[in-house]
Structures are given as structure tokens and as C-alpha cells.
Amino acid sequence: MPKSFRSISGKEMVGFLKKIGFLKVSQKGSHIKMKKHIQKEAIIVIVPNHKEIRPGTLRNILKMIGISPEELNN
After folding, report:
1. Which CATH architecture group holds 10-67?
2. How many angstroms separate the CA atoms of 11 and 25, rounded?
3. Residues 3/21, Cβ–Cβ less than 8 Å
4. Residue 1 pLDDT exceeds 50
5. How far is Cα 36 from Cα 51, in angstroms, rounded to an integer?
6. Burial group, residue 34, by CB count within 10 angstroms (0-12, 13-18, 19+)
7. pLDDT per residue over 13-52, tens digit each?
């Protein structure tokens, strides 16, 4: 991940996921479950609703949804 990669909050990540077609399915504590159907497959992502998502967690979320860090910054 580039050093210039900006930090993002859980709220911002949920907003980004909604923008690309994910729906909020449920929430348990501070973790939000987001889901998107692509053809016959469902992608489920758990987003921690924290002030700042840790870089490793963010990297894994982006990998699961097939988005590069550069696309997230745009």
C-alpha cells in the first residue's frame, strides 16, 4: 500500500460501499455487515465502525471487493 494512502473511517467506508452497490445487512456492536450480489454470487464484507480502519483491515476489505487503493482515493 502506498505511503500516501489516506486513512478512512468506518463511516466513510460504509458510504463508499453503498455508492458502489453494497447494502447494509446487519450490525452487531461496532461491526457492520455489507452485502452485494454479483450474478449468482454474494460478496459479504464486515466493516469495523471505528474512527480509523487499520491499514491491514482496509487492505483486506479492498482485496475482497476488488478495488485498488487508488480507486478508493478518487
Report:
1. 2-Layer Sandwich (3.30)
2. 15
3. no
4. no
5. 24
6. buried
7. 999 999 999 999 999 999 999 999 988 899 999 999 999 9
Distance CA 66, CA 3 (A): 20
Where exactly are the structural domains of the chain?
A: 10-67
Contact 4, 42 (CB under 8 A): no
**pLDDT value at 4 more than 90:** no
Query: Of all helices (H) and strands (E), which one includes residue 51?
Result: none
pTM score? 0.84
24: DSSP letter = E
Q: Alpha-carbon distance 14 to 22, whole Å?
A: 9
Q: What is the DSSP letter of 31?
A: E
* Cβ–Cβ < 8 Å for 47, 34: yes
